[in-house]
Amino acid sequence: MNQYELLQLLRHNAKQAAVQLPKSLNIFLEKTTLIIDIPTKRTLENMQTDGAAIESWIFLLKRWIPKIEKVIIKWESLPPDYISTKENAVYHYQRFLYRMDKISKAFPWVTILPSNQLDLATSTFKTSKNLLMNTPSTKRATKTVVKKELEAYTESELEALILFDPQTSNAFKQHFNLKTIDYQLPVGIFEANISNSARVFSGRKSAIDIWGIDQDDNCCLFELKKAQNRKVGVLSEMFFYAHILLDVLNKNIQFAQNNQYIQPILNAKKVKCFLLAPYSHPLIDKTVFQLMNTSQFGIQYAQAFIQEADSQSILFSDFSAK
User: Fold this and answer.
1) pTM of the model
2) With contact defined as beta carbons under 8 Å apart, do 27 and 57 qualify?
3) 108, 127, 146 — which closes off a domain?
4) Most-buried pick from 103, 106, 185, 279 (CB within 10 A)?
């Protein structure tokens, strides 16, 4: 089944006539095996973009096309000239390798082509004994809260509303059973020391939007999206951030320094990761998260919707209450 036929089947099963598959990926189905062939360029792009959101398409296609039993991923390895001619190429590629390794470990039905295994085996996160992550800053400046219609909020304004508006913050804590909430948890990864020359992945200043510790001592991560942001790539982001934090809990990655935020994270029992948005892509539903929750790593994924209670307040709901 070629990519066009696969798209028609996806549209039919999901009852979504307007959805598209990324033309920049070669995706086809051989009997019950989905094959995703990734050009080098896509291994170096932001995982939020459709052509680089490999994990997202794996989850969505398997959810909506039940005949898919197995997924094979293959890609064009990074040529040596890319390292010298493309800025940050090696960091993007290292992050891509980390993501592909994790998805093939998390789900037994996902495999990597043998020709790509050497790149995985020699990647920095496999060979380094001293991976470090930025420590959360102790400086927590209060952001200005702006009240407006839900559709008009930027992601930064939504973040401020959830963190610093007392009514919204209390509703948020109650819905997710949180005892603490905070924001901008850095996920820059380095080797041996925190410096530009020691970074392992791109996005040395990347951070998780909102995070907290719940009453059961689980570390909860929230990927926040505004109303207009409905990209499939959010699933890849969630998958990546959750595994970074799990590696911290498992001591495969160490915090660079100690401060008051470190110990609750290190003491967490497991990682939970939530998509927090007014809307999501039409292919993303509760069953997609149920599929993600079959991961061998025990990470829990879910979505919660941001909704207007009235002109002055926000509430949070799950799929069943949407």
Assistant:
1) 0.94
2) yes
3) 127
4) 185
